[in-house]
Amino acid sequence: MGAAPRRAGLDRALGRRLRGAAGLAALAGLAWVARDVPAALGGRLTGARAERAARSPRFHDGVFRNPGGSRSMAGTPDRNLVRELIFGKQKRRPGVAVPLSRPGAAPATDAGRELNVVWYGHASALIEIEGRRVLLDPVWSDRCSPSSLVGPRRLHQPPVRLDELPPVDAILISHDHYDHLDMSTVQALTALQSAPFLVPLGVGAHLDRWGVPAGRIVELDWEESHRVAGLEITATAAQHFSGRGLRRDGTLWSSWVVAGAHRKVFYTGDSGYFDGYAEIGERHGPFDVTLVQIGAYDRAWPSIHMFPEEAVAAHLDLRGGLLLPVHWATFNLALHDWSEPVDRIWAEAKARDVRLAVPRPGERVVVDDPPAVDGWWQAVA
After folding, report:
1. At what angle do helices 308-317 and 276-284 cross, to 10 degrees?
2. pTM of the model
C-alpha cells in the first residue's frame, strides 16, 4: 500500500475517533446539564403521606381533583398555540429594565396592628402582620424550570438576595409548579431560616427529597389550620392542578388565609375564578388585603388561571379591602403582552371602585396607607 492510501486510512480512523470522542463529550455535557433535573422533579407520595392523601375528599382514583372539575388546557380549535408562541406579535417582555425597589426597614407602627406586603415579583411576597412575617411562594432562581439552562427565564432580578431576607415565621407554598416551588430556593431557605414550610397535601414529598427536616414540614388539606407564632394559617380552596414531571395532580393545590388577632390576609395561589371565593369570604373574611393572581391567563386554559377582570370579582367575593395583584411581571408564561394584566386590572378596579396597589418589585405596601397607582409599568412596557 502506498503512502497516500495509508494516510487516507489513518485520516478516516482518526475522524471516526474524533466523532466518537465528540459524541461522548456531547453525552457528558447533556448529563452535566441534566444532573439536577431528577432531584428537581421532587418526590413521590408513599407510606403515611400517601395514606393521608387518599383520605382527602379531594382525592379520587389516585389523583387530586377540583370539586367542580376543570381542564388545565381546554384548547382552542381556531388557534395554533405553538405557532402563536413562536411567531405571535404580542410583546411578552418589557422593553427596558423593570425598576426594582429595596424595602428597607419596616415603618414604625403598632406591632399589634401592623400589616404590610413586600412583593418580590411573580407570586413571591412577604406578609408583615402584627409583628410576624410570612413568606409566600418564594422563587429566587433564574429560571422556573427543573433545569438551570432551559425554561422560562426571569425578566428582572430578585430585588433582594435570599440571605438579605429578615427572619420569617412561616413559609407558605400554594402548589408544586416550578414558578411557585423551586428546589434551590427551598434548600437555601432551609439553611438560612428556621421557619416551618406550610404546604398542601403531598407537597411535603418534594421537600423531603430536598433535605427539609420532617419537623419543618406541615401538610394541610383545605380548611385545615396550623398555628405558628400567634398566627392562624389556613389552607383554603383553589381551582388549579399540579405536577412537576409527567405525572399530574399527585399533590394538592391551595389558597391561603393568614389571620392574626386583628388583621387578615388572603392569597389565591394559582386558580381559575370559581364560586369558592364567595364561600371563603363568608367563612374567613373580610380581609384587609388580598393577593390575587392576574397573569398567565388565556382562553385556552380559562378554568385554572383568572383573567384580570375575574381577579377583581374574586376580590369582591372575598370581601377584600386592598387588592394587590401578583403572578405577573417576572416570567413569560403566556401569550398576552407583558403589561396587559396590570393594565386590565387597573381599569377594572377603577370601574368597580376597588382599592388597588401596584408596587414595583421589592416595594413595601403599607396596607393602611398604600401608594397611589402611578402606572410605572407603562414606561417599561
Report:
1. 30
2. 0.90
